[in-house]
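Table S2 (continued). Query chain:
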Amino acid sequence: MVTLVAVGGAALGAAIGLAASTGIGPFAADPVPPVFDPDVYRRATVVIGIESIDATSVLPPSGSASYQPGFMIDADTSTAWNSLGDARQDGVGEQVFVDLAAPAWVTSVRVANGDQRDTTRFLANARLARVVARFDDGSEVVLVLLDEPGEQEVALPQPVLTSRVTFEVLEAHRGDTSRDLAVSELTVLGHVALGADRVWQEDVDTRRDP
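Corresponding output:
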């Protein structure tokens, strides 16, 4: 961690400014992150493609039923990811890792909470109550989910440019008969990054994953 200390002196300030502007030494400046421009992204938000999804635990298959993370992105609410309740009861502390198909300005998240095959299964398993979403720039947003079937969309306070989103469960509604957490669908919405925004984020991705 870098700690900044205010030091008086015009000469020192000038020297630091020169080093930062020329990219020399420890005062070299990182590229300035893009700022969302609504004039560039005038079209309506779209569903952002997801390249891969994973989770910190998965309930093992039972007979013909399975509970893989991929069921959260199959556009089918009759399937669901289930966490392993023996590992983290009610799913609190579980994480879901989402790699987007392309850099995007994320504006909202849509969730089909719980196991939505029927009311009995919905109430049997734990459901999301509060989730923190973390992005490439280090920012995070707490999402509050309703304890009800159907899809619900939670808007971010402002668009965030990212290629990955990590969701961590902070709180859950307890299931009637199971400590496993279920999520039927998870959708990321926003704007696919364009031009300099996309180039900047792809450079971040390259430096992070050489």
